[in-house]
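To illustrate the input format used throughout this study, we show a single complete record. The first block contains the structure-token representation of the backbone; no residue identities are included at this stage. The design step must infer an amino acid for every position from geometry alone.
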């Protein structure tokens, strides 16, 4: 899943990660990616891409943007 990036946790401000929607047999499900990034100190701040199945039209893959929780970029981020 994100093991190849684990050395960058805490050093990198922003990560983009793809995640499956509706797949339960993959390590890259949306829930697993969000939980892993949260454990590493990152919060979901945006979804930059959403792909739909060409066969069924259902949402099946998203690209998430995560920001390090201690990032100074949070000072200027839009808060809702």
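Output of the design step:
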């Amino acid at each position: 899943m994100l093991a190849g990036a684990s050395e960058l946790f805490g050093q990198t401000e922003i990560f983009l990660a793809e995640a499956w929607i509706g797949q339960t047999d993959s390590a890259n499900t949306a829930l697993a990616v969000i939980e892993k990034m949260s454990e590493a100190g990152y919060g979901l701040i945006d979804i930059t891409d959403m792909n739909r199945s060409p066969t069924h039209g259902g949402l099946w893959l998203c690209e998430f943007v995560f920001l390090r929780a201690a990032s100074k970029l949070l000072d200027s981020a839009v808060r809702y």
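Structural context for interpreting the output: The beta strands are 14-20, 42-52, 59-68. The chain has one domain: 9-69.
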